From TrEMBL:
Taxonomic lineage: Bacteria, Bacillati, Actinomycetota, Actinomycetes, Pseudonocardiales
Residues annotated as domain Tetrahydrofolate dehydrogenase/cyclohydrolase NAD(P)-binding: 139-273
EC number in record: 1.5.1.5, 3.5.4.9
Organism whose genome encodes this protein: Lentzea aerocolonigenes (Lechevalieria aerocolonigenes)
Gene from which the chain derives: folD
Protein name listed in UniProt: Bifunctional protein FolD
InterPro entries found in the cross-reference section: Aminoacid_DH-like_N_sf, NAD(P)-bd_dom_sf, THF_DH/CycHdrlase, THF_DH/CycHdrlase_cat_dom, THF_DH/CycHdrlase_NAD-bd_dom
Any one GO molecular function term: methenyltetrahydrofolate cyclohydrolase activity
Binding site for NADP(+): 165-167
Catalytic reaction list: (6R)-5,10-methenyltetrahydrofolate + H2O = (6R)-10-formyltetrahydrofolate + H(+); (6R)-5,10-methylene-5,6,7,8-tetrahydrofolate + NADP(+) = (6R)-5,10-methenyltetrahydrofolate + NADPH
GO BP annotations, alphabetical order: L-histidine biosynthetic process; methionine biosynthetic process; purine nucleotide biosynthetic process; tetrahydrofolate interconversion
Tagged with keyword Amino-acid biosynthesis: yes
The protein's assembly and partners: Homodimer.
Its job: Catalyzes the oxidation of 5,10-methylenetetrahydrofolate to 5,10-methenyltetrahydrofolate and then the hydrolysis of 5,10-methenyltetrahydrofolate to 10-formyltetrahydrofolate.
Sequence ranges assigned to domain Tetrahydrofolate dehydrogenase/cyclohydrolase catalytic in this UniProt record: 6-120
């Protein structure tokens, strides 16, 4: 029997605690923790996602500073804007909405984010910290995945986790966080041979490949835990949800997405407090 692992209630709890900490920060300083969101171009999905993050920020008692740049923005111009935000003492966290237009060097833009403001966990500094277990900020989606597994009492230690996808902001950090929790981790990607057979050995599957319904139902062994971190046009994940018959699985939407935003807000509030207490 398939059971759902929903992120909505967990996200609500995370945001509630973040709101309380944000209120305490505002009471002490007279200012709100500030998250700056940067978007380049007008991709409809990205615009909607950024607007959602802004709305959630306001509801949680955070200030949201929106920076919208035109499609033709160069790498140098984007890097300069991000460095400006990094130097602004009123900004506590910076989010660069992914993906950026193809002509921009996204990694150079990410690395312009000051490490103490990298609340989305996208810099090499944050990745190294995650890999060694000493990061101030985790990548938000992978961090939300771990919180979701814990909320549903999923045993990670000693389990075989298969991560499908090796992006630097999702697949790789998810693998590092699972490894840190003593899972045996296999990372699969576009060049992996025998992918279905590998996935069938997994106790935990994290699908982060960016292709709708890519993971087939008969790839999932009975009783496995399936985390669908994909979001594609038409509210479809990376897993063929209807074909999975015996698993604990995240729905799309309503699974990983809410926890991602919740962790982002939580880490922004934490960044504000760290700066105050430094």
């Amino acid at each position: 029997m398939t059971n759902l692992m929903r992120g909505t209630e967990l996200a609500r709890d995370i945001v509630l605690r973040a709101s309380e900490k944000a209120a305490g920060y505002t009471e002490r300083t007279g200012r709100k923790p500030c998250l700056a969101t940067v978007i380049v171009g007008d991709d409809p999905a990205s615009v909607t996602y950024v607007r959602m993050k802004q709305n959630r920020s306001h509801k949680a008692g955070l200030e949201s500073r929106h920076v919208a740049l035109p499609e033709e923005t160069t790498t140098g111009e984007l890097v300069a804007k991000i460095r400006e935000l990094s130097d602004d003492p009123e900004v506590h966290g910076i989010l660069l909405q992914h993906p950026v237009p193809r002509h921009i060097d996204e990694r150079a833009a990410f690395e312009a984010i000051a490490p103490h403001k990298d609340v989305d966990g996208v810099t090499m500094h944050s990745f190294a910290g995650m890999s060694f277990g000493h990061s101030e900020f985790v990548s938000c989606t992978p961090g939300g995945i771990i919180r979701l597994l814990d909320a549903y009492d999923v045993e990670i230690t000693g389990k075989h986790a298969v991560v499908i996808g090796r992006s630097p902001i999702l697949g790789k950090p998810a693998a590092m966080l699972l490894l840190a929790r003593d899972a045996t981790v296999t990372i699969c990607h576009s060049k992996t041979a025998g992918l279905p057979e590998i996935v069938r050995t997994a106790d935990i599957v994290v699908a982060a490949v960016g292709k709708p319904k890519f993971v087939q139902g008969d790839w999932i062994k009975p009783g496995a835990v399936v985390v669908d971190a994909g979001y594609n046009e038409g509210n479809v994940g990376d897993v063929d949800f209807d074909a999975v018959t015996d698993a604990l699985i995240t729905p799309v939407p309503g699974g990983v997405g809410p926890t991602t935003i919740a962790v982002l807000l939580e880490q922004t509030v934490d960044a504000a407090w760290r700066e105050l207490d430094a």
